[in-house]
Please model this.
Amino acid sequence: MKLRPLYWLPSEADVLSKTSQAGATLYDVKAGFTIPGYQEVEPAPENARVGALRAADWLLRTQVSSAENLSGDTGRYFGIRGLYDNAKYLAQNWLTAHGVLAELAAYHETGNEAYLTSARLGGEYLLGLQVLDSRLQDSFGSYREHHARFPLTGSRSCGSVIWAMVQLFKATGDEEYLESARMCGKWFLEKSFPPGSVFPRGEYHIKSRRWIQDYSHVCYGGMGIILHQLYQATHDSETLDRGVVELADKFIKYFMLPDGSRNQSIDLKTGKPTGDAAKSFHIYNDDFAGISLLAAYKETQDKKYLDASLLMARWLAAKTEKNGRLGGVNSAPATALVHFLSLKKMTGTAEFDDAMRRYTAFLLRQQVVDLNNADFYGGIRGQSHVRPNDESGQYLDGRVTSYAVNGLLGFANPSAKILLEVE
Model:
């Protein structure tokens, strides 16, 4: 079947009407349901744009958004949606934030207000998670992980919410978003990454009022790009000096290896690698650490940051398979695509063009494009983070899908507004 890039035109909306009203959380697999297959797609710019907007549509259609729901989950996107067993897991704060960033990218690309409405609905959910109780000073300003009474907040999760809040402010001019982001940035620099710290701390248990993670993972290297965007909105010098530059320095010192790969985690007290393999996922899905190094380079013009980012990119490119897979981690081609696009914009290099074409082909191949499966149409396959032992590809993955929207739009149009890169 030749698929048309109709997005929101009535003919496709009719096909997808059963999920356009109340969200896919209300629907079960019907009798005779068939699992959608894979489709090879040429990684051409026009196909990348179509794929990006299909993905944004899936996020929007399956968002918890029914006016009849009136629950605390309104505004959340899906984190995981099972293709074989119809498993449904709603996104936590950081993943809903990336859904917001994806919808905003689609809005900037098309001007379609439906995407902006979805992003703002996600933003309202996230605002409701912020700790504003003055009795909880060690978590004041952070965002709870799932709901307004959830006992955990996490440094990196909060970072993604800051990112979404800054971009919502830029898109709407609503100062509430910026103030929320500023409060969380202050919490991060004072509580998670106070002066003299080796690296940011992990999760904080609000009820027992204690940090429950004594070591820090490589994924915190991605905080730099987030705090760079907050700095651009606030012009706060501490956010730049400590949140962008100091984090970049410590990421290079503690996590970068000579070949461009990364340690997985370090002990916060000693600054030494722990050997923990729990987050090996982030060796390939670099959580935007490479782009964070570019943010430090932009502000300082110190070439060591650019060189480190290039070293990472070359290691990732060398690990990329012919079909675009990267370390068996489905989201890694999406984060690498944004990283390589940023390098090309900043330096003009064509060194990674072939890898970017392979990543684009991989993401388009992983996308469900069967209009007979309306609950799944447009989503992109990934891993289950709540059932990690299951085979990859059994699930639609909100992480892969939301990251891919920005990456595919950037591949399709070099002048597109890509919210995950250095601005």
In short: The longest strand covers residues 78-82. The chain is about 50% helix and 5% strand. The chain has one domain: 46-412. Residues 1-34 have pLDDT under 50 and may be disordered.
